[in-house]
Amino acid sequence: MDPSSPRSGFLERLSSFLVREPEDREQLMQLLHSAHQRKLLDADALSITEGAIAASEMSVREVMVPRPLMEVVDVSDSLAEVISQVNTTAHSRFPVINGSRDNVIGILLAKDLLRVQREDDFKLRDWVRPAVFIPEFKRLDVLLREFRVSRNHMAIVIDEYAGIAGLITIEDVLEQIVGEIEDEYDFDESDDNIQLDPNGLYRVKAHTAIADFDAAFGTRFSEEKCQTVGGLILHHLGRVPQFNETIVIDGICFQVLRADSRRIYTLVVSNLPEAGDPAE
């Protein structure tokens, strides 16, 4: 083939595009977006790749469920109390505490309760599995690899003073990569976007319609500039908030319970007006 021919030049440019190596993360992202524009990557593949790259730069502290919001059982709880907590939260794993959230002694797997034969001699301590403790600054990609190797699905997060900072699950990590994971035990998107948790706090899905939020909390947020609660937060801040960040708008306090670098998933709402108590 004649090196000066147009076809030869096109092949050289194509080859150069495919084999050139990015020198930094910014160039890598440019290559990925360029591949998407050329339909070499679909939108889902691009989003997952971006999530995986972002996870390598995020720490456990940015994603964990903070200590006050942990769903726990106490080692002194009866079988009926434990089952009630399982049914209320629909979680499959629980930190087991001994009197205080600062004293986590292990993890309970809800499925283990299926093997309990007699309630009268039930002792929760007999069913406690060892807990895995990790520092809050551990990177998510490192933690995901450890979860896969150890086959653990939950870890207790400790701060620099060895105090309990929160917990994190393998689902929390995966959601940073692939987006929010809904299963048959998550609260229903259409009917339960606003939910009262066992701690007396209201959890609100970011995609909750402003009209529904106003109806529940007695607020009067405008729908002209945004249609959802997440959109309200984004419009107010002008950016995506970080995990655990608190935003106050017209007397309503929003705490970010779950978010990644691209979107908000769940908020905790507090400091409600006296006249705005949501209906049960």
TrEMBL record:
InterPro entries: CBS_dom, CBS_dom_sf, CorC_N, FAD-bd_PCMH-like_sf, FAD-bd_PCMH_sub2, Ion_transp-like_CBS, Transptr-assoc_dom. Residues 64-124, 127-184 form the CBS domain. Coiled coil: none annotated. Keywords: CBS domain, Cobalt, Magnesium, Repeat, Transport. SUPFAM superfamilies: CBS-domain pair, FAD-binding/transporter-associated domain-like. It comes from the Bacteria. Pfam families: CBS, CorC_HlyC, NMB0537_N. GO terms for cellular component: plasma membrane. One of its GO terms (molecular function) is flavin adenine dinucleotide binding. Plays a role in the transport of magnesium and cobalt ions. Belongs to the UPF0053 family. PANTHER family: HEMOLYSIN-RELATED, MAGNESIUM AND COBALT EFFLUX PROTEIN CORC. This is Magnesium and cobalt efflux protein CorC. It comes from Candidatus Accumulibacter phosphatis.
